[in-house]
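Risk register update: the risk of archive-format incompatibility is retired. Evidence:
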Amino acid sequence: MLDLIKELSLPDDAGLLLTESQFWTPEVCVELFRQADLIGFTDPKGGLAVAREAVRMVDKLPGEYTRGSEKTLLKSRGFAILGSRLRAVAKLDESESVFMLACGLSWGALPLDVADLLRRRGMLRVDQRRFRNARVLENRALRICRQEADEHMIGCVLLARGEVYFQAQNPQEAARDYGAAADLIDADRCFISFYSAVHNLGAALVRGAAIPAELSVAVEQIERAKEIGFGPDTLPGLNLIWIQGALLEKLERDDEAEAAYQVSGAGLAALGSVYELALNRLDLAALLHRQGRLGELIDLAAEMFPLFGTFRANREVMAGLRLFHNAAVDRRVTLELISKVQAMIAQAARKVD
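Archived output:
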């Protein structure tokens, strides 16, 4: 039965499952929960569509599955997944309402299911900028996972708590949790969580203070993630190469860093990922500036402005690139100006998301 689901084209075919009674089983519901998270990582709207169908599937379960609390607890798990997927598309109010439903149905749930619900709700608190409450929820989830001695789930909660610290502008604490998460998460059980821990660890180490040994370990972990997960022609795979370049730059391995920026930049251009590409090119610009390669910096600025015009980048992106281009032509580029332009483009990207 589960093999049949894997042959479907989700999320497009998710609705078909509701019309075939052979699929109305708890196992299919759980698989749809899993698929919602997997698909949602690279396609947030698609993940949301699958999550909605998964919750509807629970209501389709026949009488033999409605005895006791099985259906209620499945519905709670489904609402937890749906709440996460709503959060991923910035429907925060609806996400809050759905999480409240999940909590109301969670009495008698397995401890790890409770921990997962707390973890997911904590991430909503991050998006709501309620960091203190987010830490409380993640710490409660962590206590449960430790009591259950599930190392993978401990790692998943530490990954979430690391995000709390990172978004609250505490990269050192974030790096500590991300690093522990990368060590504990079972990549075979959930590669996306392992990928996120490794990528986020790199981002936290780049932003905060780090000793060379920490940076080197992160570089090696990224190598492992590149070997077992997303390909180099995908956005997640290119983001790994890009963050590896930033780590290498911090280690003063400039030639390797530049190569990583160039490879990831070419891939991002091929995908048409406008915001990521703009930020990537500016990272390369900062490297060139630090090395005093002003002629190449001017050439890069000259290439960027018409390139992003072909991508039909929005006004905020083009305004930032114009500022960078004009400063480069006038030989007035500073690292502070590059950071300012990156902040402008990052803000524009968040509005689109």
